[in-house]
Amino acid sequence: MKKQPEMLDEYDFSKGVRGKYAASYHEGVNIVKIDEDVTKVFPDSKSVNEALRTLMRLLDKTPQSA
Nearest CA to 51 among 34, 36, 63? Predict the structure, then answer.
């Protein structure tokens, strides 16, 4: 089986600017790697956030251990 090239000839990055949005992306994005078994239950950011907020509410109501 012949492997397809990663970059096709019609891609034109000649006017691209490396790192153009890197600083703003770094300031405003928090990326967390979610393991595959977790993504089967929580497949998108909405479901992950909802589960974490539920956990946060439960932790607020649980007596803190010393």
Answer: 34
